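hi! just following up on the protien thing from before. the input was this:
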Amino acid sequence: MFDVRAAQAPFVLWQQMARMAWEAQMIIVLRTAGMMGMVQQDVTEPTRMVMEKADAATEAMFAALHAAGRGARADQVMSAALRPYRKRTKANVKRLTRKR
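and the predicted 3d structure came back as:
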């Protein structure tokens, strides 16, 4: 039997990655502008920037291992690994674009 969701999986995964990449670029621009004094930025932003990467990497590793351990398909494992990063990029864009 043809599994439509499995056939669409590469496109869904690409869409997740593209959205996250777009948000990551916005975050880089906003944080760089903040470091240059062009926009108001919390003084803890540089530290937050470093710490969140370590936290996201740890969460991503455990999510991927958990999905793989359940016998998930490769695209599902990859999607699980991307989720912690996507959660942070989405939150960062929302936080950094908020009017002060």
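The chain has three helices and no strands.
The mean pLDDT is 92.
cheers
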